[in-house]
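Table 4 source record.
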Amino acid sequence: MAKFDEVSKLWYGSSTPGVLNPRTNLGQVILNLLSRCPDRVIQINADDGSEMTCAEMSRRIVRVALNLKRLGYHRGDQVSLVCANSENVVPVFVGCVAIGLTVNPLAPVFNKDDLAHMMRQTQSSVVFCDEANYGVVEQAVRLAIDGSPEVFVMGASEWSAKSIDELLRPAEDEDGFKPEFLGDSENLTAMVLCSSGTTGSPKGVCLSHAHLMEGELFADDENAGPIFNFSPLFWATGVLAMLTSLLYIRPRVITTKPFSEEMLFSIIERYKVEDLFTPPSYVSAMITHPKFATANFSSVKRWTMGGAAVSEELRLALASRIPNGFAKSLYGSSEIGFITSAVASCSPGSVGTLANNVSAKIVNEEGRRQEPGQIGEICVKYKHKMLGYLLNEEATRNAFDEENFFKTGDIGYFDKDGFLYVIDRIKDIIKYKNYQISPSDLEAIIGKIEGVQQVCVAGVPSSDQSYDLPTAMIVRQPGSSLTEEQVIRVVDSQVSDHKRLRGGAYFVDQLPSSASGKVLRRVVMQTLKNVKQSK
């Protein structure tokens, strides 16, 4: 549980030392751990039911590493990884990191311009992609990268690119391979993780080997049962699921297929998944599915949700179907990792208590540290500071305050027991005349209305651009005939005058969201603005 220092007005999570040595390199640690349990299953492919043992995972990692070295790649080279969760993604990631390459995972659903945005910064020497997105990736490479990087396709290649099979061929001396020590892990970049990009183009977050080894993960149970989420390695939750599997030697279920309620039910029941992560939008869709009431969730120990606000009603609805575990909110960022703990208890409505090796403070607009119960910006510090935003010194400077606390841009508070509550994004606050309105307050009310499956509230400029009008974008539950008038009537009956839904309510088939299911509020805002202007 987080502890509050009344003198410094800082909150501290546990500082228990990890069992792994953060001074070593990530590839060294992973290969050492895999060698201890060669016959244990470390990966399960839900697409075809195939399993991979630790010995086979290790063999593929070593072959990727040695074959890349044979091709002339070396420490400091950048790698673009534009892949769904197929069977060879983890061997490629670890194989690259083991020889000092820096991996930049990108969303496999990115279009040409989104890929080019990051590739211009990384100037990658080697690119990995799927068969399905090779054409888009090739266009982005030509558009953004100087020179001609090698492109490898996960699967058979029918184009000018090479197949990943070439890197999985037996390599000379593979049985005696031991990754060399690459130097100071605290300052050696392992990966460039994209920031969420929910308020603009993503930035490249440079994370060290030590950062990835000592951060809190989804669970700390060794040799436990399967872990699953839909997140590719582009998302921090995908990376953290991979590390939970590798560092605690437990099977991770993977699939290249996108989320569907049926797919999620099937994976949980078939593989007896113990730890899950989903965005709340997936859970919202799932609890209205006919099978939700009868699905077997008895294997689930922890079901965490994050990436967007999780209502207490949604959490309780999910928790009611988990007989042997719990459902809770998580809070984190690309720059820190988990800010709150996935394994500690959670007070209703909160996102939990601080993760291991994380400290925090709440500061008001004047920069003064706040007491428990007082609201302000959430600022956090992790034991291993990120190494900066790639090629963006100004953004790196602006991300931290004078005490090296990362400014999350989120508003919230700690209660007296050390639980953190996130209220809203600073940039999302709706400014109506002299009032400030939290979108989540209105979303909580609308979300309880019968017939609402999902909602996002944003501020749309008034006709004279002098203030914002609270406006709702709503996805109805299947079969619902809910109207705008009904929504406005419910909201207006429960809020103060300045919080009324003056911008109205609009219904859509689905909210714009990222590949991981996070609602893109800036897109919602722009869409609502366009609709208003067209009237």
